[in-house]
Amino acid sequence: MACFKAWKEDPELKEEGAVCTLDGTVDWHGHPAIKTKSGQWVAGIIILLNQGLITLAFFGVGVNLVLFLTRVLQQDNASAANNVSKWTGTVYIFSLIGAFLSDSYWGRFKTCAIFQGIFVVGLVLLALSANLFLLRPKGCGDGEISCGTHSKMDITLFYLAIYLVALGYGGYQPNIATFGADQFDEEDHKEGKSKVSFFSYFYLALNLGSLFSNTILGYFEDGGMWALGFWVSAASAFFALVLFLVGTLRYRHFKPTGNPWARFCQVVVAASKKWHVEMPPTGKELYDEDGKESSTNSNRKILYTDGFKFLDRAAHISSKELEEKEGKRNPWRLCPVTQVEEVKCVLRLLPIWLCTIIYSVVFTQMASLFVEQGAAMKTTISNFRIPAAGMSSFDILSVAIFIFLNQHVLTQIVARLTKSGSKGLSELQRMGVGLVIAVLAMVAAGIVECYRLKYADKECTNCEGSSSLSIFWQVPQYAFIGASEVFMYVGQLEFFNAQSPDGLKSFGSALCMTSISLGNYVSSLLVSTVMTISTEDNMPGWIPGNLNKGHLDRFYFLLAALTMVDLGVYVVCAKWYKSIKLEGRCEDGKEVENLKV
Predict the structure, then answer these.
(1) Tens digits of per-residue pLDDT, 28-40?
(2) Backbone angle region of 422, left / alpha / beta, with phi > 0 → left and psi within -120 to 50 → alpha
(3) Beta-ladder partners of 302
(4) Closest C-alpha among 477, 478, 434, 448 to residue 566
(5) 475 three-class SS
(6) Using an 8 Å Cβ cutoff, are 432 and 574 in contact?
(7) What is residue 26's three-state secondary structure?
(8) Is-contact 597 432, C-beta < 8 A?
(9) pLDDT tens, 457-473?
(10) Considering Cα of 304, then 309, then 314, then 319, what sign does the dihedral take?
(11) Phi-psi region at 470: left, alpha or beta (left = phi > 0; alpha = psi -120 to 50)
């Protein structure tokens, strides 16, 4: 019917035999999206390039922000680290705001465009403030020339700039992955495969953008060329925004569905009012929309599932509501099954999400303890010094290799062994594999630390390079982390996108970002707790300033043990999990099959 309306407005489409998407997406004008004229890899590639450029711009600021605070703003190490942690945490808080606005009111395209604009403004303001006010005298901030004092106005302008960057990137990031996935109709078999591939390439684009920032931009900024680094970031963000807008007429869109929290509250209130009602054994007698009404403005209905029976009361039709059914329905007394199932979906996702936080604790070690460990190893080859942070390049290389292996080798092997088509491991299975590999990463890091201590000078004062063990022994732990990312984070993106209702897709992506944020906080708490316990009786502790007097290896083995416990809990949660059932998608049972653990 929707395609018929589109044909009436544009007769040329009928002559060309145009076919509309089946997932309910619309084009720029609000008409049903025509498959051949919208979305697919044309739009997908634009979004991938946009993501790479935006990531380059963001990490061009974030990768050396702590150095900028210490060298240019003259902050001590503790204050600088604390300020960077607050800034990073704020990015992920803003991701929830961006997801809410996208799902509720603006839609993903408008949200991405607006927050990218804010991102560009923040970067330009940062570059201007650094160039005109902060980098005085010229050439300061390279570790040798000290910068002068700054006025409160200069500092205020700087913080305004970096928090605009945080707002722009945080509001953009959870929506762009989902918007990219929207370009592929999951109801179409061929496009459904492309959608799965898109998430892998999306994560690869993110890593390639950060690789350029960590190496090229990081090198210039470390040498004191801060203004150049910030201007390159601003230019990259500006070109990303222009590129994103170029594809405007090609994109497919899901319409925003209104405030989800109001819908959730309606279900809870309606169910609470009927707590005494005796419910039927099946969901066949529950209230459902007739097609003319849509309380959630959703494109696809969600079918009834068992579980959380108390919430089913919200869709129970009493005799009074039966009389009022012909009139206007009170949403605080009667909710359709689709609305009730929305709440159930979120409740089922939360245990899986909680199990990903420990993995994020492991992942965050790559940017902190791995670097400190590497700095205490032999970092020179002849006269060339390898920066400890540069070892993260092996993580990105591992991500690229394992994305290729997963797409073209592992998927085919699993498909032949299980005879389950060509999808390979399910999202839940891949996330479990990611946890297993994370354990191996921590074990490898612990073993390397044992050998580093064996060849270390424990009485050193400046302990950089104090062990004769080469920094290249860290390659396995970085490679394991990269491989685990492909299984865990890519699988997580796919899982939350596929299992979130149409009106909460961006919220699902935001859950991935908040997992990383909470991983940072839990890691800090864990380190503080370990140091408090391990420094009793005047002991140096596991992670002292001089790592040669500590036992960083024990901390790595502790993380390996915690991850194994988390894996066990995850397996239980994954087996308990019930897949979302969208009308038309689960009739053949393939969706359920793809989520088996």
Answers:
(1) 888 888 888 888 8
(2) alpha
(3) 582
(4) 434
(5) helix
(6) yes
(7) strand
(8) yes
(9) 777 666 666 788 888 99
(10) positive
(11) beta
